[in-house]
Amino acid sequence: MKRLLGSTMLLTMFAFPLLCSQPAAAEVVIKIATVAPRGSVWMRYFDKMKSKVEKETNKAVRLKFYPGQVQGDERDVVRKMRTGQLQGGSFTTVGLAMINPEALVLQLPLMFRNYARLDKVKVAMKADFERSFEKRGYVLLGWSELGMIHLFTKNKVASLAELRKQRVWAWNDDPISKAMMRALNVKPRVLGLPQVYPALTTGMVDVVTNSPLGAMALQWHTKINYMIEMPLAIGIGATVITKKVFDKLTPAQQQTLKKWAAKVHTVLTKRIRKDNDKARAALKAQGMIFIKMKAADHQAYRAAATKVARSFVPRYYSAATLNKVRRLQ
What is the pLDDT of residue 299? Predict the structure, then answer.
């Protein structure tokens, strides 16, 4: 018995330091970049998501957000995700299209008349979009928005004919804005997002597209005087991370990340819609003039939008996907 006890104690003495030296679960840091400005409503909600995830995982999963284009524009962020410098991004459809072109179907011009129709499609096609991101090596954490997208102008533009005489900006990496301008017979000034404010200042461009909230967040509203009332589209965004980093998490950690991402993005979307209403009222109070387009021009916009939607098949999405979105509304 004494010999047995002695052997057990000896084994315990050797085993104890080995047990103590076992490494703790590895910390996973997920670096996520966005063009959303520091201090904006988007960043306030991303900070909430970071706090909730880190608290529930005891900081085993850490989120690090880079706001305000400090990691470059959306093309730069996508490139850095592919090389592993970043693990995620919160994008507009410009960045999303570089990762998953099928996302463009949600921001086609004049596709949705209101938020309710968009929400219905996002819910009905949730699994479709999750699969389409995953097969490309990414995990969709949640949809967000910019709000209703409008034309903002320095000069009064009350018709499509007058718009064609203006210097109209189109985002260099955005296939939708460039295609729509071409369909409307407007020759755009193609620039990157960081170049827009200086271009408005120098007069290189005098027409831009954005939501009221986006125009204010980027300070574009200080350079423009008019807003065309007819919205061109609903600005879609989403936060995605690489499947590579997602697979490093334990199943429980994955569930925690997806749970809080879904909750925060849902609340964020509601907040953005409310804040866009407030931004619209603020712009009007500051003296911005809202312009109504003529009925004939509305028809021209609708015809151009239909042309653009068809032209993106099959390069960006299939005819079946386009028809499904239309059918579900």
Answer: 95
Omega of the bond prior to 314 within 30 degrees of 0, cis?
Answer: yes
Contact 87, 32 (CB under 8 A): yes
Nearest to 205 by CA among 153, 161, 158, 159: 153
- Closest-CA residue to 137 (of 26, 222, 242): 242
Of all helices (H) and strands (E), which one includes residue 24? Answer: none
Name 273's Cβ contacts closer than 8 Å, sequence gap at least 6: 115, 145, 147
Between CA 167 and CA 153 the distance in angstroms is 9
Q: What is the CA radius of gyration of the chain?
A: 24
Question: Which domains does the chain possess?
Answer: 27-328 (3.40.190.170)
Grouping H, G, I as helix, E, B as strand and the rest as coil, residue 203 is coil
Q: Is the pTM value of this prediction over 0.85?
A: yes
Instruction: State how far the Cα of 188 lies from the Cα of 168, in Å rounded to an integer.
Output: 5
- What residues have CB less than 8 Å from 210, skipping those under 6 apart? 146, 149, 150, 152, 218, 220, 235
pLDDT in tens, 7-56: 443 334 334 443 343 334 579 999 999 999 999 999 999 999 999 999 99
Q: Do the beta carbons of residue 161 and residue 289 sit within 8 Å? A: no
Residue 137, burial from CB neighbour count under 10 angstroms (0-12, 13-18, 19+)? middle
Residues in the chain: 329
Helices (H) and strands (E) in the chain, counts: 14, 10
Nearest Cα neighbor of 152 from 227, 221, 235, 222 is: 227
Element (H, E) at 149: strand 138-153
Residue 249's CB is within 10 A of a number of other CB atoms, namely: 19
Give, for 289, the enclosing helix (H) or strand (E): strand 289-291
